[in-house]
Amino acid sequence: MRVLVVGGAGYIGSHTVYELIKDGQEVIILDNLSSGYMELVHPKAKFYQGDIRVKSDVEAVFKQEKIDVVMHFAAKIVVPESVKEPLEYYYNNVEGVRVLLETMKDFNVKKLVFSSTAAVYGEASGVCQEDMVTKPINPYGETKLACEKMIQWVANAHDFNYVIFRYFNVAGADASLKIGLMKDQLTHLIPVAIQGIIGLRDHLTIYGNDYPTKDGTCIRDYIHVSDLAYAHVLGAHYLKNGGKSETMNLGSNSGYTVLEVAEAVNKIAPLKVVIGGRRDGDPAELIASNDRAKKILKWIPKYNLEDIVRSDYNYRKKIST
Ligand SMILES: NC(=O)c1ccc[n+]([C@@H]2O[C@H](COP(=O)([O-])OP(=O)(O)OC[C@H]3O[C@@H](n4cnc5c(N)ncnc54)[C@H](O)[C@@H]3O)[C@@H](O)[C@H]2O)c1
Fold first, then answer.
1. Which of 267, 297, 301, 306 lies most in the core, judged by the most C-beta atoms within 10 Å?
2. Whole-structure pTM value
3. Domain assignment of residue 103, given as a range
4. pLDDT on residue 292
């Protein structure tokens, strides 16, 4: 299979490229390196530098390469930034997908695996099922939902098949430690907590310990990036074998409190924790039902919280020395 990975120089895209190559697939990457890194590009992948909003950049790849399946990871993903600069988010995330779909249609490539997010569920609490109401509460989530809908309408009109994956909290690094979440992208709990034990920050702030959960801190669903990446390999095979369009959560079906995550990190080395006030818009509990991905793709996540924390620690130590 020849897979075009758009955004393959980023965190999740690069891990997916590694899994695709392990699986024996040929990979072509298109990335503008706006938040990606050449160091994350697998040496066996063919790399094109270009922007998916620029039709001639996308066409150049489709003219040169015969493509079976496209995977899309090329988005801007920082929620607070999306609130400050919504137009940039609509332009990059939505226009990028529109140009990509148009080019796929022109070149008769009709299989797409798309990265979406739990942010489409908005302030939902508890276990998220794919057919729940979607109600994003920030421009980032709105742009991803707009892309989901655009893909669904295009599939409806042009005999096109897709798998849309909605991710929950992604962390960790590939076992080779050649790739991982790079330094300047850190906003998520696990890498931030790890920074607190390798001397890159003084403490971890926990936002609120008065939620209705077992220890008062928020419950979230954590998934190892390599498990997530492997689901994309299964998604590509599924589409190649004639699978019909589906939207699936990728999470673990269970959750950990923020304090439990801090304790897992503290087992590696002492972590100082400071309790702060609640943040706006943080639901008490957010967990993915992953029954659909398990049933349709036979996807079984392999890694637990300790594995995720340990692999992020190993990677962060490696890049900080
Ligand atoms: N990281 C998470 O926890 C998370 C959670 C939910 C969903 N997602 C989704 O996963 C996808 C990948 O996220 P990530 O964490 O790997 O982000 P990332 O920033 O590491 O990767 C995005 C990649 O896309 C490239 N890119 C962005 N805009 C582009 C454009 N216009 N043209 C060409 N390339 C472009 C960037 O250079 C980068 O290499 C995104 O679509 C995001 O919405 C991520």
1. 297
2. 0.97
3. 2-170+222-250
4. 98
